[in-house]
Structures are given as structure tokens and as C-alpha cells.
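Students often ask why inverse folding is considered easier than folding. One informal answer: many sequences map to the same fold, so there is more than one right answer. In these notes we will look at a single instance of the problem. The structure comes first.
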């Protein structure tokens, strides 16, 4: 099965770039990518909501092999939720992936595991793929509580899903202390937690779901550390923040296999 757990490299742009800058970045990235990249790795970009239509249009009209993704959504289809975006709106823009429960949403905007669970279900209902994030703080790691924290996030975030749904989704392990700090988890630490996540999925949803679910690592992924991280058996991709804002750096991460 050549495509079993095809790696997924995702660029989380966070609150960067207006729609003009977004178009430029996608075009620059398309010049860097080759048809071989397309065969061996899936790539997604997750611009701010206001850029999505422009990014979708350039990707579709220029036939750029990059998936369009969002950074968040609400769980309801419509209603009196000022400032929120419905998953149905994202599906209409041909978004294929939605990041759910990023630590910045949890820490800065108070998202709970229950919210994350509702969002995961809503994204699946609209036939998009959630990238469900999990990860511990530095305090939690130092107190020896990293595994429990992540286990709880996975169990609660995926509660009520069917095994085949879980097999199709993406989980991103992002230790909070590694995000935007330049400090990366060692490949061994990242592998250990990603392997643990796969075990938690196996226990709750069975071996097939665990074998199929893609697990990304995120937190200061750069061209220099991507090859070793991606070489770990339970790491199937990367969720990249800062380095995804530079087309050349992001392309080098996508092409991690070419590093010597
Ligand atoms: P970073 O962000 O690569 O800038 O550390 C990763 C993320 O928050 O998804």
C-alpha cells in the first residue's frame, strides 16, 4: 500500500497575510514544488478566513497541487454566532481540512475538549478532514503529566466517533512549549508521544483506525529538523507555523526526503 499514511505537511499561517500576500505566497510555493512532491506527500495551506476564497481561486485556476484548509470553525451550521464561521461555509470553498483545537484556540480563546469534539464532528459532517491538535504545556511536561494530558485530549476530542471516521482524520501533536519558540521536541520525544497517541487510538477504536490515522508533529518545524522528525515511524507529517510563511523554507520542509 504505497499510499498508506501518505505524509501530510500543513502550513498554519495563523493571523498572517492579507489576501494579496496570500496569493503571492501560494504562487511562489507552486514554483518550488515538483510533480514528484505531489506523488509522495500531501500539502495543505491554512490561511486566515479572509484569504480563503482568493487562495481557492488561484489553486483551482492554476491547478496547484495544494489542499486548501482552514484554521478553525464553529460547530453549528448557521445561527446567531457573531464573528464565527460555519463548517458548511468552508466546505463550499472546497476546503478539505480544518485545524481544530489548536493550542492557541484552547489557551487564548478558552476552547474546551467538549468544543473540540463538537467541531471535529461538524467538520466530518461536511466531509472535510479535521486536523485535531493536542499537546502539553512545559509545566505539565516537567510535572510528568504530558502523557495524561494528551491522552485526555484525544479521548475527549474523539468521543462518539466511529472507528472508520477516526482512521480518516489527522491528529497533530504540538507540545505547547515548542510552538513558535524555536525549541523543538527531540525526534525521540516526538516519536514517543506520537506512538502513544496511536496506542490510545488503538485502544479506543481498534487496530485498523490506529494504523490509518495520520499523526503530525508541530512546534518549530524547520527545514533543518524536518528530515529527522519525519523519519520517525509514528510521525506522518508536520503542522508548520512560522516556517510555512516563507515559500522556500516551506518547500524544503515538504521536500524533506531530499535532504542529505
Ligand atoms: P511553529 O507553529 O511552527 O511556528 O512553532 C506551529 C503551530 O502552531 O502549528
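Output (designed amino acids):
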Amino acid at each position: 500500500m504505497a499510499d498508506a499514511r501518505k505524509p501530510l505537511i500543513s502550513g498554519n499561517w495563523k493571523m498572517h497575510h492579507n489576501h494579496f500576500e496570500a496569493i503571492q505566497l501560494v504562487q511562489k510555493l507552486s514554483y518550488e514544488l515538483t510533480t514528484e512532491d505531489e506523488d509522495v506527500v500531501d500539502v495543505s495551506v491554512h490561511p486566515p478566513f479572509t484569504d480563503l476564497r482568493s487562495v481557492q481561486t488561484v489553486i483551482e485556476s492554476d491547478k496547484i497541487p495544494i489542499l486548501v484548509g482552514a484554521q478553525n470553525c464553529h460547530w453549528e451550521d448557521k445561527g446567531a454566532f457573531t464573528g464565527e464561521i460555519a463548517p458548511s461555509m468552508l466546505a463550499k470553498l472546497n476546503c478539505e481540512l480544518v485545524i481544530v483545537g489548536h493550542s492557541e484556540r484552547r489557551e487564548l480563546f478558552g476552547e474546551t475538549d467538549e468544543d473540540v469534539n463538537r467541531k471535529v464532528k461538524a467538520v466530518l459532517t461536511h466531509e472535510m478532514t479535521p486536523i485535531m491538535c493536542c499537546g502539553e504545556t512545559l509545566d505539565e511536561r516537567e510535572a510528568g503529566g504530558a502523557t495524561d494530558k494528551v491522552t485526555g485530549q484525544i479521548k475527549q476530542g474523539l468521543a462518539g466517533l466511529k472507528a472508520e471516521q477516526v482512521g480518516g482524520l489527522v491528529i497533530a501533536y504540538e507540545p505547547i512549549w515548542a510552538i513558535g519558540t524555536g525549541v523543538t521536541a527531540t525526534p525521540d520525544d516526538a516519536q514517543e508521544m506520537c506512538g502513544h497517541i496511536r496506542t490510545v487510538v488503538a485502544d479506543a477504536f481498534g487496530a485498523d483506525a490506529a494504523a490509518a490515522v495520520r499523526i503530525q508533529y508541530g512546534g518549530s518545524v524547520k527545514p533543518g529538523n524536518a528530515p529527522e522528525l519525519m523519519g520517525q515511524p509514528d510521525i506522518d507529517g508536520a503542522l508548520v507555523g512560522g516556517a510555512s510563511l516563507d515559500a522556500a523554507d516551506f518547500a524544503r520542509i515538504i521536500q524533506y526526503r531530499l535532504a542529505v
